């Protein structure tokens, strides 16, 4: 994959201790997004991975909100469409929704009911996987529409939180891993 290209990305991820609460080390991708060469490298690496791993994808689905930054350029490169998975109340028209537990309460995600069709193949994209609750909920939404989740794809995985275990049998890929 090119350790030099991964290092370029890792160098553009900025740590913020004690954000959003004490004891949390936040991994900020803003510097990566701000650097056009690094952002292009990010999309190149994700594209390369998907072309090898999944030659037939119908849609990229992006999670609210940073998945919206990564998903559209990746979908465009692959010549496929992009669909939104949003926080409750943000999408017009008929939607499918799911509630899921957070460490501090509950949240809900939605997808438009006609976003994907039965049998279509979807890759779900976000910037980071922590506990895996949001990503798992997104997978369940796509499955409710009878589409197939090919893979969950993130830039950063926080390994200590074991979020990928929550995804069970759903294939998962991360570019950068942190303990």
Textual characterization of the structure:
With 179 residues, the chain is α/β, with parallel strands linked by helices. It is built from six helices and nine strands, in the order αββααβαββββαβαβ. Helix 1 packs across helix 3 and helix 3 packs across helix 4. It is globular. The model has no long low-confidence stretch (mean pLDDT 96).
Concise account of the structure shown:
With 179 residues, this protein is an alpha/beta fold.
List the keywords:
about 180 residues, alpha/beta, 7-stranded mixed sheet, two-stranded antiparallel ribbon, 6 helices, 9 strands, about 35% helix
Number of helices: 6
* Nearest-integer average pLDDT: 96
Rg, rounded, reads 16 Å
Please estimate the helix content: 25-40%
The largest sheet, given as strand count, sense and whether it forms a barrel, is: 7 strands, mixed
């Amino acid at each position: 994959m090119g350790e030099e290209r991964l290092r370029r990305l890792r160098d553009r991820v900025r740590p913020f201790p004690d954000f959003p609460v004490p004891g949390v080390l936040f991994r900020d991708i803003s510097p990566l997004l701000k650097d056009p060469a690094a952002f292009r490298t990010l999309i190149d690496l994700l594209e390369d991975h998907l072309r090898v791993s999944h030659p037939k994808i119908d849609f990229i689905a992006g999670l609210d909100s940073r998945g919206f930054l990564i998903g559209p350029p990746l979908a465009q490169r692959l010549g496929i469409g992009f669909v939104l998975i949003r926080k409750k109340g943000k999408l017009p028209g008929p939607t499918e929704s799911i509630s899921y537990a957070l460490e501090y309460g509950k949240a809900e995600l939605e997808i438009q009911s006609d976003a994907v069709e039965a049998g279509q193949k979807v890759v779900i994209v976000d910037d980071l996987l922590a506990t895996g609750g949001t990503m798992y909920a997104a997978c369940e939404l796509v499955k409710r529409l009878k589409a197939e989740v090919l893979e969950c794809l993130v830039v950063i995985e926080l390994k200590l939180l074991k979020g990928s275990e929550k995804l069970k049998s759903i294939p998962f890929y991360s570019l950068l891993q942190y303990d």
